[in-house]
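Lab notebook page, bench 4
Experiment: in silico fold of construct C2
Operator: M.H.
Input chain length: 152 residues
Purpose: comparison with the prior construct
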Amino acid sequence: MTLTHDIVRAMVDRALAGPRVHPSIRMAVAVVDAGGYALMAVREIGAPPLLMDIAEAKAKSCVVIGMPTRAIMDLALKKPTWFESASRVAQSTVGLPLWGALGGVIVRDGAGELLGAVATAGDTGAGDEAHARRAIESVGLVADVEGLDVEW
């Protein structure tokens, strides 16, 4: 299976439709393919401009490391030197640092194939992750929020 414009648009719309920790919160959402290339990025009117870059950094982090930002956050806490070094490499090669915070979720098909990632920014970390997860599941794909279950 591949991501199509209609699937990506549906995920973006669903991510922005979810409940938020406060009604005044404005968000951004980014969807990238398995290569880390942006397929769609949307910032709601009134959302801080930086949120678009944060959402894209979260989504790209997922695919360039191969795990959701929840797992990257765990890795950053357990191996800070490795994380900082890898983040510098990501900055120089893909133009964005690795993002070690909640909100980036890997998109997989039913066979477990990585299709890309969805990330949101603007709500709480747990809220951002929930928005991305609901968006992915709303189109019948698998939301990978756990990543690798290994001891770092």
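Observations: The mean pLDDT is 91. Residues 20 and 127 are 7 Å apart (CA to CA).
Next step: discuss at group meeting.
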